[in-house]
Design goal:
Layout lengths: L18 H7 L3 E4 L21 H16 L6 E4 L12
Parallel strand pairs: 1-2
Helix pairs in contact: 1-2
């Protein structure tokens, strides 16, 4: 039996999404390309204090913990690498 794949692509403001709406997707894999300007070593971005980082931080501090509590989190997260991410501490 072949595995069933459902491909869902969407562009949205992450900070406007709810854990409930994401849980309905039952996604095993998330592919993300967050704004790199706040973290790249080539700019003077403000890291987590930069407003462009707001949605990415919301994802990790609000949405994912809620999804984990519902046992509805993705098994895999693929995040585009940016050199400045190596020093991020997300609580």
């Amino acid at each position: 039996m072949r595995p069933r794949f459902l491909i869902f692509c969407s562009q949205a403001d992450i900070s406007a999404l709810s854990a409930s709406s994401l849980a309905l997707l039952q996604a095993d894999l998330w592919l993300m390309s967050p704004p790199c300007q706040p973290y790249t070593v080539l700019s003077s971005g403000g890291g987590s204090a930069d407003p462009r980082a707001k949605s990415f931080i919301h994802l990790f501090e609000v949405l994912l913990p809620d999804l984990v509590s519902r046992n509805a989190h993705p098994r895999y997260l693929l995040v585009e690498n940016v050199a400045g991410f190596k020093v991020i501490a997300i609580s």
